[in-house]
Amino acid sequence: xxxxxxxxxxxxxxxxxxxxxxxxxxxxxxxxxxxxxxxxxxxxxxxxxxxxxxxxxxxxxxxxxxxxxxxxxxxxxxxxxxxxxxxxxxxxxxxxxxxxxxxxxxxxxxxxxxxxxxxxxxxxxxxxxxxxxxxxxxxxxxxxxxxxxxxxxxxxxxxxxxxxxxxxxxxxxxxxxxxxxxxxxxxxxxxxxxxxxxxxxxxxxxxxxxxxxxxxxxxxxxxxxxxxxxxxxxxxxxxxxxxxxxxxxxxxxxxxxxxxxxxxxxxxxxxxxxxxxxxxxxxxxxxxxxxxxxxxxxxxxxxxxxxxxxxxxxxxxxxxxxxxxxxxxxxxxxxxxxxxxxxxxxxxxxxxxxxxxxxxxxxxxxxxxxxxxxxxxxxxxxxxx
Length: 385
Hints:
Elements: E1 6-15, E2 36-46, H1 48-53, H2 55-120, H3 126-161, H4 190-200, H5 202-222, E3 228-239, E4 252-262, H6 266-336, H7 342-377
Antiparallel strand pairs: 1-2, 2-3, 3-4
């Protein structure tokens, strides 16, 4: 509001005391004293210098500061969204862990049935059967632990979503094990991705807006070095009007207009201090931007490496799983024929379970790495408007 013309309305009434007049003044016919004074006045002041030196800079500083705050809010929302997606994928990993553990139990039970049949025909010792029974018990224990962990994770997801505690069961909704997008390594080189992050990340854009706002604030502060120029006008409707001579007891309207220059020399010192402080704030934000760029470089590099490793991990885990499944099939046939021990069969079961867990972790890890890379590059910026 300081940049708007200032309009002041004033109304007054004054009762004056009677004073003794010099008898020599009577010859001039001044008449009787006027003891009641009424006045209505309106004054206008237009800050011309502010329009030149302050208003555009102040508006620009405020606009860019507002934009910076909005970008900061959006950046925080994107970070929360990325963290939520990662939490969801971790929950999916726990769901997959339960499935793998359940498959391990079914697998161990099937081998136990084969062992009991082989034992009945005298091709297997009682110790081999007991070893497989222990394997079933161990698999069931691991399944129970995985289910307990998933129960806690379910509650965490429900709390995060604001869902009812006893609502409908949570479902995955995505095919984790067959997705191909997350398994692809980045096509662009690392420097290209880092430049993409510098141009898209809202944190960088927010600091750019803040820097522009602070630079405009510096210009606004330096306006204190110059004199202040105001256009002024005044209208008076008074009885008696001081502009009328000789005074008469009736209302008269008069006006005045002009310009007023004001230069408070003490303001030069305070302006210098304020300008130095504003420059320091600008330099501080510039350093924050440099630090943020360095941090983004490392964040992109880490996410880039994680996605590349995840793609290789998926390929390796799938080859390992295929080999482990085939090895277990062969060991099972040998076991049923009495040419392999229960130890061999338990080891092959453990290798298959380990390979399945590695495949699951690789797939979930790829989704997590892809989410982190998209956030690091600012590709999720279109999610929040």
